[in-house]
Amino acid sequence: MTDTPLRLLLDFDAFSQRDHHQPPAFLHRRDRKFALTCEQQGRTPNARLWLEHMARLSGPGADRSAGDKAIRLWRRINTGFVLVGGLLGILTMLGLLFYDGGQRINITAFLAFVMLQLLLALFTTVQSIAGWQPWRWLTKRLNRGSTSDTVHRLQPALMARASHLGGLSFATTGLLTLLVMVVVQDLAFGWSTTLNTAADRYHQLILWVSVPWHWVWPAAVPDLALVEATRFFRAGGQSNAVNPEQWGQWWPFVVALWGVWVLLPRLALSLFSALVIRGKARQLLNNHPAMHALMYRMETPTIDTGNEHNDAGDMPDTSTPTGLSPLPASNLILAWAGADKPELPQGLMGPDTQVFGAGGRATLAEDHRAIGHIAEALAGQPGGAVLVVTRSWEPPTGELQDFLETALETWPPHVVVHLVPLSPDPNQPPDDRQLRQWLRFAHRTGGDGIGVSILPGTPQDPYVIREQVL
Q1: What does the pLDDT read at residue 393?
Q2: CB neighbour class for 351 (10 Å; exposed up to 12, middle 13-18, buried from 19)
Q3: Which InterPro entries match (predicted)?
């Protein structure tokens, strides 16, 4: 079902989007059962096995691959770039080789155009690595449906590959057109420039450009006599002193120039872009928010009482005298138990934000160091606040309570701590029941000194809003 890291990522992202509408209890039982089945079969559960399991659950009528839509879209984009690039390669080479018998085909113009192609190829690679998307308008126009954040992050690398494939097609058809024109016409090359350049200096430039192939194809390296004989001036008219055969002796150099400095870089960068896509797809899959939630569901046991009545929706008396508080502006963030992995939401980050880690795998000494560093930062911030980022689906622990009690004793008395529980998808609000447990924990631990906030822009829990009104 999944052959490449890209398809694996797209399939996983598509299934995770579907799971977003499923009840958490159902997802937990399903994935925990899958993990136990893998354990019985002696296999380690991973994304590929999980997708195959999901495909079996979906039945024979389901789509073969949930990521096929995105794959087909990018295949169409790649094909379009290849076709357009091939056509432009033919037209461009015909334009460069245009010869009406009155003037020579200028080698200097060829060199400038080849340099431009090389710079464009390098620029495309750099922009994809930097994540810049100058082609975003095109992808938005072609992909009219909603695009997930994962696919959005992968688009620079995918578009760079499409651009390199178009460039490779451009270079290939251009080279083929050049060879055909060499056979069917008597092309007359020469070199010309407005600058006061001597033939020997121009020959040095030709030798430098010819370095990659001078030992493989010596005939494609023009000698000084050819360079001296084939200089022309547009205002000078035709020169009858040069043997007409010498005008055509430049063609091996032009073929090698185009093949080495236009075709090969595009071929190498196309292969490199494929490697970048594979590596980025693996990275995005490992850091996918749904992957962390899936691993948690597979590792955490579920309790099945066998009672036909499902009381998962029956809420106990979870009322609390406190409600959500507005998220204060603060540049001090404490990520509890790795809650900043894979990354914190952009809404929490600012240019001066300092992020500290504690809890989880951190030692007790590291926890105390984090408390000390924050205390030093708070010394110059009267009325400061500290944001403690947690995972909403993990219950508050006694370790966190001890940590906060120690921190409140150490930090200045005016400091306010705000717990910020994050959902598996940071763009969505935490689940109602998960949010209530953090409200009860905050009230029990710190009273008015600890509040609970959610990210700005996420819908607030209606239950909590009602409590605030009351």
Answers
A1: 83
A2: exposed
A3: DUF2868
